[in-house]
Amino acid sequence: MKLKTRFALSHGLVVAATLLACLAIFRQGAAWMLSHQELKAEAQQVQGFAMDAREAVFRHEDLGLIHTMQALLKNPAVLYVAFANPGTGTRVVLPKPMAGEAWQGLGAGVALPHRRPLKAGGEALDWAQPLDPRSRSSAWIEVGFSAQASRAQDQAQVRRWTGLVAGVLLAGLLLGLGMALLLSNRLVDPLRRISQGTRLVRSGRLDGLVDVERPDEIGDLARDFNAMVLQLKELDEMKRDFVAGVTHDFGSPLHALRSTVDHLLSGDAGALGERQAEYLLMISNNLASLTAFVNNLLSVARIEAAKAEPYFEPVDVLAHVAELMQLYESQAREKRLEWVLTKRSPYLSLEADVTMFRQIVMNLLSNALKFTDQGKVEVVLGEEGGDLVLEVRDSGIGIDPKFHAMVFDKFFRVHQDGDKPGRQGSGLGLAIVKGLAELHGGSVAVESSLGQGARFVVRLPKQARRR
Predict the structure, then answer these.
(1) CATH number of the structural domain spanning residue 412
(2) What is the pTM of this model?
(3) Which residues of 420-437 are buried (b: 16+ CB within 10 A; e: fewer)?
(4) Phi, psi for residue 52 in degrees, rounded to 5
(5) Are the beta carbons of 49 and 73 closer than 8 angstroms?
(6) Which of 58, 215, 365, 464 has its CA 20 to 30 A from that of 6?
(7) What confidence tens digit (pLDDT) does each residue in 9-67 have?
């Protein structure tokens, strides 16, 4: 999972969990507050009824309370209202069907108000109190509230408030997610640019700096990265100058040495003894290897300096590949390798630089021969999607997948089990293949695993793509 996604999800989940916890706390608090307010409102109604009852008793107008009792019953939560005056023998319960529910707790010493079950089912919150607690013959009032109705009212109110608060919290959640996405973009985008910069450096392009203007640690990382790229660019330019100078200075002496050795081997300077001829041949072979290395250095330097311009012309692909395979056939026979050329398309066409194309093929064939001791080397030619496809397959030691991205780097040489020090090359052959393929608008890829051989695939556009 990408860092941006993880950051947004983690912060979004934290925000969501926080808001849900706040909603749960609010719901519990709202239920407690409404219950408390409900009790307070009921107590106020009971106290108001008690004041009216005291005034009626004082005026000896007990029946005058009926209007007050009827007004109380307009509240849907009131189940019954009762008044009793032992002094006058007045006992009134409204509504009359609830007469059997009143006076259940009078004189029982029950702490008031109290909950009690109703005979008809349900539960009542019973408020009963004497008008004069100091007198045993005091008049009494009693009001019964429906616990279910009060609870239903509280729950309905809690739901309404919860809905409103949930809407606000949902808006807060969306805002929090939006902020998390913005923060993740602000965090990840500079890192993505730095990552893209590292890939450019990895591919050998040192002309792109990362544009990240931040005062924090990410900004420090970007500035350090840019400083590293500038230093690498400076070192790369120094290396190019050095390579160009070395190849130029070595070229002429090597050519002179080879000419001299070839002249001596030809016998034009006089007869040679067997040992002398053997030593001169060894010198000639080593000069040839050194000359090839210098030429490879020159090719790499020209590719990197963008001075290698392909001259596009029609190429007889099959003829050139067959000729180059014939050049290496004696080496393949010495190793007893199968040396196979396979043509998968009836007609092969290509516009390319002939010299560069031959160098691509030669480097791949040389590489396959170098790392294959037994089995088979096969060159497969075909066409696919408007490209010429050149495959070189071998049954050699193979390449560990962890090295696939590096085998095309300059001077990189794979060190792995089964390898022999004597066949380590300069590390330039595959880098030249990649550079020349890209000059033609093509590409090269490798498929291999350790001990399973290797398959190099070069794709070149059949029609020239001039840069």
Answers:
(1) 3.30.565.10
(2) 0.49
(3) eeeeebeebbbbbbbbbb
(4) -65, -40
(5) no
(6) 215
(7) 776 677 777 777 877 787 777 777 877 887 888 888 888 888 888 888 888 877 778 88
